[in-house]
Amino acid sequence: SAEAPGGALRLALLCLSSQRVPRTGWVYRRVAQPESVSDHMYRMAVMALLTEDKSLNKDRCIRLALVHDMAECIVGDIAPADNIPKEEKHRREEAAMQQLTQLLSEDLRKEIYELWEEYENQCTAEAKFVKQLDQCEMILQAFEYEELENTPGRLQDFYDSTAGKFVHPEILQLVSLINTERNKKIASASPPQP
């Protein structure tokens, strides 16, 4: 079936609204000028582009990164602190993805919805890699905020929430670099011990 007239334009406008949806975790922590959902997805897509892992389909990783939080332009960024059960969060996001993809031709609807499902179900190496990128981007962003605000260590809970979740070698290396740089900043900000 053909797309509804203007469906792609309406979807683009809806997705553009994610530029105005701040990432909730940063809002709750009173970060000045927090990143938006679209900022987050764009940086993840760039991080996926930079992978050198030949066993992964890089194009698919980029597309997964661009689609994984698309529903948030309708439902908002539901954070763990919101205490909404995972099943309810999934139900809301699934309904939003159906609403968004309904605007498209059958082929595009299927492609985008299936990418979102693949990420949600974590059923491929690419989806698992992108999930780790999601967590890695969060601590990279936390590191950046601590730098910008000159508050080393303030966002420790974001680091704690990712402990043990990284297994991909490239991501482990990046996380190690972030932690090394961050620990230097924390140490230099701490008063010397007597």
From TrEMBL:
Listed PROSITE patterns: HD (PS51831)
Reported function: Catalyzes the dephosphorylation of the nucleoside 5'-monophosphates deoxyadenosine monophosphate (dAMP), deoxycytidine monophosphate (dCMP), deoxyguanosine monophosphate (dGMP) and deoxythymidine monophosphate (dTMP).
One GO-annotated biological process of the protein: deoxyribonucleoside monophosphate catabolic process
Pfam families assigned to the protein according to its UniProt record, in alphabetical order: HD_3
Family to which the UniProt record says this protein belongs: Belongs to the HDDC2 family.
Domain HD, residue spans: 37-139
Broad enzyme group: hydrolase
Catalyzed reaction equations: a 2'-deoxyribonucleoside 5'-phosphate + H2O = a 2'-deoxyribonucleoside + phosphate
EC number annotated for this UniProt entry: 3.1.3.89
InterPro entries xrefs: HD/PDEase_dom, HD_domain, YfbR/HDDC2
SMART domains registered for this protein in UniProt: HDc
Subunit structure: Homodimer.
Protein's organism: Psilopogon haemacephalus (coppersmith barbet)
Keywords: Hydrolase, Magnesium, Metal-binding
Cofactor(s) essential for the protein: Co(2+); Mg(2+); Mn(2+)
Single annotated GO MF: metal ion binding
UniProt keyword DNA damage present: no
Protein name (database record): 5'-deoxynucleotidase HDDC2
A GO cellular component annotation in the UniProt record: cytoplasm
